[in-house]
Write a structure and sequence with these properties.
By secondary structure, the chain is of the alpha/beta class. Among the domains are: 226 residues, no CATH class; 121 residues; 90 residues, no CATH class; 93 residues. The chain has 40 helices and 12 strands. A hairpin with a 2-residue loop joins strand 3 and strand 4. This is Effector-associated domain-containing protein. InterPro entries: EAD1 (IPR045430). Pfam families: EAD1, GAP1-N1.
């Protein structure tokens, strides 16, 4: 807070004069009238009930330009019973806004009464620091009884019974302090309060606004409404006035609103009106067109601040909101403006006249008339009573009406049309007199008034339908309605003719913009309009921007437009979304348009991988287009797999395509040096075979170690012999492939692993060498050692060592055992046996490998 000056507060003592009568004892202020007033009001207000002893109490009232506050005690020293002693503070009402805390004033009052001996013979004024600002902290909850008192207070005015309050004296003082703190300064002087001991029979000007009833006397007040100061029941302030008085956050905003109105609040009724205006003001949203709220606020502002030069900004903004809302949603409110004077508003009030002009015009030309509104408007136009119709409103409405009415016709037709513009009875009669000839239809068509009201046009068009006068029907709707509405009515009416192309529809279409034609074609689903709209969209694809593909009418327009653009994306703001919606409609049998489907199939949008209805769509696609959708979708699926994003299931139609020779050949060709990609796709699609992989391995030049291990494991798990041998072959010349070979080691027989022991990371032994020799020879010479080739004998061995009872395989086992341990012949050895075999199989790499390991046969 900040202290800006010191206030002077006069004081006075009132009590027993000469010990017998109540009057002024001493005062710092000389004012005869005030002295007389205080002598009466500071005395005990009434007789005390039997047995009741009063305690010190507070009172306050306003007299002329003073706010008077006092504390009263019983005077036990006086000669006469029932006398009191009172300490009075006298404050200028104009200073009250500068005293934010009532407690600071109450602290100036005596704590105890003065005895006769202590009473001074003269008295000086007191001083109090005036404060121009004090920070007010918001409160979350207050005693509920205080809120009750506040709401009684704002509805109170002189002539009503006081607000009766009962409770402890300290609670009552706390209530007074809180009310004082929150009240606008100009209203603090109205906070009059005092004590009473018995209920009053009727309202009296002598009674203050707030009457405190001691707790001991509550029972005597049963017939009166009493608010008990119960501090246990608490509630959050909600209403703006509650927030304002109790210093809530919303109250600050409300106070700022009051200040913006440039008001000097004189009574609580004005504060109540401010609350109503504030609530109306806060309920208005700049983006919300609400003519009712705007008009209500405008009326409140006029009542609160009739000066046109004050509260200009809020009046101006309210007028602007109302002026904007009236033409859109405020026809009723525009009629209500007729009794609102504009004298309290700034020049912007003329905006209401502009809005009224538009509304009057709309009433006359509205596509769907409100007959009651039209009738009322005509009544207002001819009503000259200024107490009911403000002159500005009537003049504006007359001007608007007169500008809307223009007539121009030849003599005979003019009479007919003049009758049409009158009452229903006259209208029906004049139309009934028109001869049923083609000439008359043409005459009326050429002389139709440009200002034909909708209600009149309805009668005329009904008349035309009965006579099959479709040219006059078209001319009537053309002048009475906006182009779109006119076309709508013509199309609906001509449905009974069962014709595919109407020259009248074609003529009315020319009055529409391209967007208007498209919109009404979508709405009416009329074949002629759909074809014309499709042609428009073909010439100007941006007309397709608002397309809702869910609607068959839009799909028809789109299909027609594609015959002109031949581009599936032309005019689409979000091609993917539009095409996805179309395919969804196709899935559920609602879309049957072939033109979009053919162009989709030829584009990347044939990828339907992400569509939830994908499994249904496969069955809906035409057979000739299905392969394109499958191929494009499969390509997308492969990309998803390679990106590590795919987690869904795959339909058989995609799996079948993925395993086709065409796809596998193309894919492996594309990924000729990307084995990781090939393996990742196969993990999902399982589309590799032994032969495909064998050829791929043979053409693969390099491979990462980790990927090689994956490759080998795939070969092993599928037992792909050809691929395993391809890995063995590649590993002989490229160490990159050895991790793959290790993974499928178990697929090779011991002979192969022995011959290629270095590739398999193995140290060859003599035992393995003899076993490998046995296996190789048994494989090369299936007829045995002494078979057709006589290999044993050629190597220098003794064939008599073998028994014909043995199998050929058993003979080889016995032969190698004899050779190893002696007994196979004096001239035969492992080296001679291998050499003899090489004579028969010169290019056998396994024999050559064994020949290079001849040292293993010497142990």
């Amino acid at each position: 807070m900040s202290v800006v000056s010191t206030l002077q507060i006069h004081q006075a003592y009132f009590g027993a004069v000469n010990g017998t009568s109540h009057g002024q004892l001493v005062s710092s202020l000389t004012d005869t009238y005030l002295r007389s007033f205080l002598s009466g009001i500071t005395d005990r207000p009434e007789a005390l009930p039997t047995g009741f002893e009063i305690s010190p109490y507070l009172s306050a009232t306003t007299y002329r330009s003073y706010y008077i506050l006092w504390r009263t005690w019983p005077d036990n020293e006086a000669k006469r019973l029932g006398m009191v002693f009172t300490h009075v503070l006298i404050l200028p009402v104009q200073d009250l806004p500068r005293i934010p805390e009532l407690s600071s004033v109450l602290s100036l009052l005596l704590d105890n009464p003065l005895s006769v001996a202590q009473q001074p013979t003269s008295l000086g004024p007191l001083s109090l620091s005036a404060i121009d600002h004090q920070k007010k902290e918001p409160v979350s909850a207050v005693p509920e009884s205080w809120l009750t008192i506040i709401n009684q207070l704002i509805d109170w005015h002189p002539g009503l019974l006081p607000i009766f309050v009962s409770g402890e004296a300290g609670q009552f003082q706390k209530l007074l302090e809180d009310l004082w703190r929150g009240l606008p300064g100009t209203l603090r002087g109205l906070l009059g309060f005092g004590i009473r001991f018995t209920p009053p029979n009727k309202p009296s000007s002598a009674l203050p606004m707030l009457v405190y009833i001691p707790v001991e006397l509550e029972d005597k007040w049963r017939s009166k409404q009493i608010t008990k100061l119960d501090t246990n029941l608490v509630k959050a302030p909600e209403a703006p006035i509650e927030q304002l008085i109790l210093n809530g956050q919303l109250g600050r905003d409300f106070l700022e609103f009051i200040n913006n109105l440039d008001l000097s609040l004189e009574n609580f009724r004005a504060l109540n009106l401010c609350q109503r205006a504030y609530v109306q003001f806060k309920s208005l949203q700049p983006s919300e067109l609400d003519a009712g709220k705007s008009l209500a606020l405008l009326r409140s502002l006029r009542q609160l601040q009739p000066d046109p030069n004050k509260a200009v900004e809020i009046k101006r903004s309210t007028i602007k909101l109302l002026a904007e809302a009236l033409p859109v949603v405020g026809v009723k409110e525009a009629m209500g403006l007729r009794n609102l004077p504009l004298t309290a508003f700034p020049p912007e009030g003329q905006l209401l006249g502009v809005a009224l002009e538009q509304i009057v015009t709309d009433i006359i030309k509205a596509p769907k008339p409100n007959e009651d509104l039209q009738k009322n408007l005509l009544g207002y136009l001819v009503d000259t009573n200024a107490e009911i119709i403000e002159p500005w409103w009537r003049q504006t409405a007359l001007k608007a009406f007169e500008q809307s009415v223009v007539q121009d016709s030849i003599h005979t037709a003019k009479v007919i049309w003049l009758g049409v513009t009158q009452t229903e009875t006259i209208r029906d009669y004049v139309l009934s007199t028109v001869p049923n000839t083609g000439d008359w239809e043409q005459i009326l068509s050429k002389t139709i008034p440009r200002s034909l009201l909708i209600i009149e046009a309805d009668s005329v068009t009904s008349f035309c339908v009965r006579r099959d006068w479709w040219d006059l029907f078209a001319e009537t709707v053309a002048v009475a309605f906006k182009p779109v509405e006119a076309l709508r009515r013509q199309v609906e009416a001509e449905k009974q003719l069962n014709i595919s192309i109407s020259p009248r529809v074609g003529k009315l279409v020319k009055r529409l913009s391209d967007s208007e034609l498209v919109d009404i074609a979508v709405e009416l689903t009329h074949n002629q309009l759909l074809e014309l709209a499709g042609e428009v969209c073909g010439r100007d694809p941006k007309q397709l921007l608002p397309m809702d593909v869910h609607m068959q009418s839009w799909r028809t327009i789109w299909s027609v437009s594609l015959t002109y653009t031949n581009s599936i994306t032309a005019g689409l703001s979000n091609p993917k979304e539009a095409i996805s919606t179309f395919l969804t409609e196709l899935a559920y049998g609602r879309a049957r348009d072939s033109q979009p489907l053919e162009l989709i199939a030829a584009s990347t949008y044939a990828n339907i991988l992400d569509l939830p209805e994908r499994t249904i769509i496969w069955n809906r696609l035409p057979p000739k287009l299905l392969p394109k959708f499958v191929a494009t979708t499969l390509d997308a699926l492969v990309e998803e797999i390679l990106a590590g994003k795919w987690t869904g299931t795959i339909e058989p139609i995609l799996m079948e395509k993925a395993r086709s020779i065409e796809f596998i050949g193309k894919f492996l060709g594309q990924k000729w040096n990307e084995p990781a990609a090939v393996l990742s796709v196969n993990d999902v699609l399982h589309n590799l075979s032994d032969n495909y992989l064998r050829d791929y391995i043979n053409n693969l030049s390099a491979i990462n170690g980790i990927i090689a291990a994956r490759l080998g494991k795939l070969v092993y798990l599928n037992n792909w012999d050809s691929s395993a041998r391809a890995l063995l072959s590649k590993a002989k010349s490229n160490t990159d492939f050895r991790p793959a070979l290790y993974e499928c080691t178990s697929m090779f027989n011991l002979l192969t692993k022995f011959i290629n022991h270095q590739l398999f990371g193995h140290q060859a032994t003599s035992i393995e060498a003899w076993y490998a020799l046995e296996e190789l020879l048994a494989d090369l010479y299936e007829e045995g050692p002494d078979g057709e080739y006589k290999i044993w004998k050629k190597a220098g061995g003794d064939v008599t060592k073998f028994s014909n009872a043995q199998s050929r395989r058993a003979q080889w086992t016995e032969a190698i055992r004899l050779l190893r341990y002696g007994g196979g012949g004096k001239k035969i050895s492992a080296e001679s046996l291998i050499k003899a075999a090489l004579d028969d199989y010169k290019d056998n790499s396994n024999l050559k490998a064994l020949a290079s390991l001849k040292h293993l046969f010497q142990s």
